[in-house]
Structures are given as structure tokens and as C-alpha cells.
From TrEMBL:
The keyword Isomerase does not apply. GO terms for molecular function: ATP binding; glutamine synthetase activity. This is Glutamine synthetase. GO terms for biological process: glutamine biosynthetic process. Residues 27-107 form the GS beta-grasp domain. Its EC number is 6.3.1.2.
Length: 371
């Protein structure tokens, strides 16, 4: 059994006494932001005099960027600008979670604030009503980094019985998955579903359909909820695209995409046009589909374990070994959506959705090289 954190072993009944105390008219608001790694999330909480009704009711705040890889100690104040509000499933109503953009001392966006440029593109393509659905795969680990419930020496049985599996011998950590699902529903996340994945201790949840910038907002907060739920259980959720080497599946963040023209009768040609555009910018997409310019995906996109090869672009109906999959139902109905299977589990959804919207919907001759 993988090791669990000492915090998870504390007497939770003692905690519950304090959590049930009344708080009057006051409201706790937890500010959430992306740190300087582009992968990690940070949070801190403050008290407001009353429950905020809209995002405009939540004030700006600041933090020490020198402790989050975002600033030097000599000029470390960073601004938190609230952009999206959710109910708090940990401290319950009327308390809130608020996702924030990060700005530097000079009011310019922090280097890992990709939301602002993503939102600009989404406003440009608003007439297309672009929808996204992202499939977030993750792996449960002990605090020692060993996969949860794997033998301390050796490996579990080979892949085969775990995908959508049931039973103690096949499903490792379902309590965490179900608690996360409920937390997302309570918070107001547009969670679509969940399932056990191919590798033992690997799971997936889906968020969407979301339109435009909403996709990144909801997926980042869903990730925060996952980390917090895992914290309560004393285990770790990793988004590493290849957490275990060898004959084990990696972890991706498959991204489903459609515009209103694709969803209407006779929409298949628009899907095919989008795929053709994607084929011409494969290398640029790979560079933004993980936080390290494609280095993480090199371990995952090998052409094996239900992936395409990172160096080649491919597309096909019901083909999970392709870069782009057209679901069989879409091929039959001649309308719907396509699935980009290249994004890594640790991708920034703002970068991914921005790149897809740019490639598929904007005039490529007018797109700058750095987009």
C-alpha cells in the first residue's frame, strides 16, 4: 500500500466540531491562482462582510510572488484579479471559491497567465459558438510517489481489467473519485462524467461542454477540487503524462471540439476543414500541448498505448491511435465534433483551447507566429 500523509490520519470528528460553528453574516472566500510553474495551483482565504452575489463583489487581492516562482523578493507583490466564482464544497455555503488571473506589479499579466490571451481569441471567434469538452486523466499516488494500491515491490496484473472496472481487485481509489465528482457538482463545475482508466490507479473525469473561456476556468477549478479531495484522503493526484514507464498507458487531456456549423445538419465538411487546418500546424500545437514545449508529451505520444506518434499527424474515424479522432457516431450522422487526442494531462487548457480556436477559425495568414 502506498504511504498516506499524516494529516489525513488526524481525527476528523474534531475538525467537524469547528466546521459546524456558525459564522454569522461573514463569508470566507478562497482565492485560487496558477503559480509560476504553469502547472501548480495556490490558494489563500479571506473574510468578506457578506456573501458576494457576483464576481464584481469580490475585491482584488495580492500575494508574495517570490514564494510562487513568479517574482523576485525585492519586488514581489503580485495582484489577484477575480474572474470566476464557485460555491465552496469544503466549507459550504455561503463561502466561495474564486479563480483569479495574476498580474505583476506593473499590471502586466504574469508569464503563466495565459487566460488573458485565450480570452482575447475566444472573443474574436465568439460568432462560431465554439464548444469544448476536456477529458482529464490523472493517476493516484502515495505521498512517497508510488502508485496508490500497487504492490510495494513489483507491479499489479497487466492492463486489461481496469478500464471502467469494478471490484477491489480492479478499482483503486473510487472513494476519491466519487467525492471529487460530488464536490464538482456542488461547486457548479460543468462536470460531465468520470471513469476508471486503463492503468490501475488511473482515472478520468470530463468537463464540458463549455463555450469559449469557460472551458479553462472550469477545468482549472476542477483540478483544484481534485487536489483538495486527495489532500483529505492523504494521497496525491498527479497529471504527469507518463507516470509509470513501461507497458502502461500514459495520461492525456483529450479535447473535444465543435462549432455551431459542425453541430448542424451537414456539418461534417466543417469538421474535415478544421482537421485539415490542424494538420498544417501540428508542430506548433505539440509545443503548447504540455507546459514544457512538447518534452512531456515525448514520453507519452509514442504510437503505442492508444496514442499517435508525436512526430506525425493523423486522423481517422473511431481511431484512438490517431492525432484526431472522429467518433463513429459523428461519421454516421455527418455532424457533431472531433477529438484532439494530443494534449497531455498536465496541459494548460487556456493554451490548448486558444491554439485550437486560432488554427480552426482564424485566418492563418493573420495569425502571429507566437500564437
Amino acid at each position: 500500500m502506498a504511504s498516506m500523509s499524516m494529516s489525513s490520519c488526524l481525527d476528523k470528528s474534531v475538525r467537524q466540531h469547528y466546521m459546524s460553528l456558525p459564522q454569522g453574516e461573514k463569508c470566507q472566500v478562497t482565492y485560487i491562482w496558477i503559480d509560476g510553474t504553469g502547472e501548480g495551483l495556490r490558494n489563500k482565504t479571506r473574510t468578506l462582510d457578506s456573501e458576494p452575489k457576483t464576481i464584481e463583489d469580490i475585491p482584488e487581492w495580492n500575494f508574495d510572488g517570490s514564494s510562487t516562482y513568479q517574482a523576485e523578493g525585492s519586488n514581489s507583490d503580485m495582484y489577484l484579479i477575480p474572474v470566476c466564482m464557485f460555491r465552496d464544497p469544503f466549507t459550504l455555503d455561503p463561502n466561495k471559491l474564486v479563480l483569479c488571473e495574476v498580474f505583476k506589479y506593473n499590471r502586466l499579466p504574469a508569464e503563466t497567465n495565459h487566460r488573458i490571451s485565450c480570452n482575447k481569441v475566444m472573443e474574436e471567434v465568439k460568432e462560431h459558438s465554439i464548444w469544448f469538452g476536456m477529458e482529464q486523466e490523472y493517476t493516484l499516488l502515495g505521498v512517497d510517489g508510488h502508485p496508490f494500491n500497487w504492490p510495494s515491490n513489483g507491479y499489479p496484473a497487466p492492463q486489461g481489467p481496469y478500464y471502467c472496472g469494478v471490484g477491489a481487485q480492479n478499482a483503486f481509489g473510487r472513494d476519491i473519485v466519487e467525492c471529487h465528482y460530488k464536490a464538482c457538482l456542488y461547486a457548479g463545475i460543468k462536470i460531465y462524467g468520470t471513469n476508471a482508466e486503463v492503468m490501475p490507479s488511473q482515472w478520468e473525469f470530463q468537463v464540458g461542454p463549455c463555450e469559449g473561456i469557460e472551458m479553462g476556468d472550469h477545468l482549472w477549478v476542477a483540478r483544484f477540487l481534485l487536489y483538495r479531495v486527495c489532500e483529505d484522503f492523504g494521497v496525491v493526484a498527479t497529471l504527469d503524462p507518463k507516470p509509470v514507464t513501461g507497458n502502461w498507458n500514459g495520461a492525456g487531456c483529450h479535447t473535444n471540439v465543435s462549432t455551431y456549423k459542425m453541430r448542424e445538419e451537414g456539418g461534417l465538411p466543417y469538421i474535415e476543414e478544421a482537421i485539415d487546418r490542424l494538420s498544417k500546424r501540428h508542430d506548433k500545437h505539440i509545443r503548447v500541448y504540455d507546459p514544457h514545449g512538447g518534452q512531456d508529451n515525448m514520453r507519452r505520444l509514442t504510437g503505442q498505448h492508444e496514442t499517435s506518434n508525436i512526430n506525425d499527424f493523423s486522423a481517422g474515424v473511431a481511431n484512438r491511435g490517431a492525432s484526431i479522432r472522429i467518433p463513429r457516431q459523428v461519421g454516421q450522422e455527418k455532424k457533431g465534433y472531433f477529438e484532439d487526442r494530443r494534449p497531455a494531462a498536465n496541459c494548460d487548457p487556456y493554451c490548448v483551447t486558444k491554439m485550437i480556436a486560432t488554427t480552426c477559425l482564424l485566418d492563418l495568414e493573420d495569425v502571429k507566429e507566437n500564437q
